[in-house]
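ping. complex inputs:
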Amino acid sequence: MLELNDLDIFYGDAQALWKVSLLVEEGEIVTLLGSNGSGKTTTLRAISGFLRPRNGSIYFKKERIDCIPPYEIVRRGAAQIPEGRRLFPTMTVFETLTIGAYIPRAWKMKAEAIQRVFSLFPILEERTNQLAGTLSGGEQQMLAIGRALMSHPKFLMLDEPSLGLAPIIVENIFNIIRDINQHGVSILLIEQNANMALQLAHRGYVLQTGRIGFTGPASELLENDQMKKAYLGL
Amino acid sequence: MNLKLFLDQILNGIVLGSMYALFASGLTLIWGTMKMLNFAHGEFYMLGGYALYFALTLLDVPPLVAVLFAIGVTFLVGLIIERLVIHPLLDKPGWEVSPLVATVGISIFLQNFALKAWGERYKNVPYFIDGILDIFGFRIAYQRLLILAVAAMAIGALWWFLKKTRFGMALRATAQDREAGMLIGINTHGIYMMTFGISSALAALAATMLAPIFLINPWMGLSSLLKAFIVAVLGGLGSVEGAILAGIVLGLAESFAVIIFSSEWKDVFSFVILILVLAIRPAGFFGKKEW
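pong. complex structure:
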């Protein structure tokens, strides 16, 4: 589904990623872990076309995407839920979901897609005409996921969906991510909460100051001694 | 002040204000979406006026066709200028003011182009409809009624476009969070081009309605631009609703200023309002509120 090969990313002269390689197979949930500033969001911004790699390549569905603009990447089926959710503050829940279906092939099916989002997140249906900016944190995260689903993605990237949310809501959201995955959407989940992410994911990668430090099946990473010390707080 | 004069001034104020509203909403639309001021906005108004004049005199078409022609031509010029001049200057780190400076250049260019190509003599177009409606001694020229009707329709159409259509919603999304807009598949450069075109078309529409009352000349955009800035700032830069409300308020205020003081004091009065509003409510009527 998604393949990063030896990616080098620079901000001006400062190198942020060194030879990052990462693979998401069809149907997988892969998590990308790491502490603050380790390059998680940078990796995501490179995949979605906001940053251009100096070296290396990115393939999505066997086509090279590291040279095409962000909106075109979405049209090919890779959606992203950005860090901090980035909702449109004065659009209602209904408007937000509607414009989520902006790409031509999704626009025709938007009514059904909205119903599907409402069945995933019943609370959003109750908030149909409320402004996005006035929702609670958990509802905003749900709306951000719903907006991304409106484009019928085959691949979904989530940047720290648990940030700033109560544990019970995080659990709810992680269950829904699993549910989305079981409906055939491959997922790349970026998290600081390594424990929860590894329980959900099939495989994991750990970024350490711009380089991939560990990688392996989630169950192995959960048992890895170094991982336990550094990221799992055990 | 008797009742008749009072009603007359209310009507005049609303007619004038509705044009301020149309003209300024184009300016505020560009600010809201592209986060830049367009100093050439008045020149698109001027182009609309000339396009109308030439359609009426050279092509000799009926007024309705001439108005549509003027709007269409100005829309296209807006699109092309955005693509050729503004677009290459956007998104360059450290070049943030360059699009704004470029619009000053576009303004000077278009003014001098008009002067060179069409001369400094003022052009005059006839009223679209002659005659005066008389209800119980309360007299209104049909041209003014027409302006009101057109303004109401245009504002309604703009509202519908922004709230209900795919492109209009994409424009609002881009205005509120450009990067998030890209992440749902919006080509935001395309939206910028379209915003510029629509803004120019709104200016042209205002010009076609006012051309029979005022006169067409290469500098007609300047004073209008100043008014549009007042209106846009009063309403809260970036807020279309604010621009519409502020346009009407300013129109009414000016028309009463004319009879209470005299017409020379009209602009003084509008700037006093601006200064007062900025002192009391710096963000304008609808400040910070995005649409």
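Residues 3-280 of chain B form a domain with the ABC transporter involved in vitamin B12 uptake, BtuC fold (CATH 1.10.3470).
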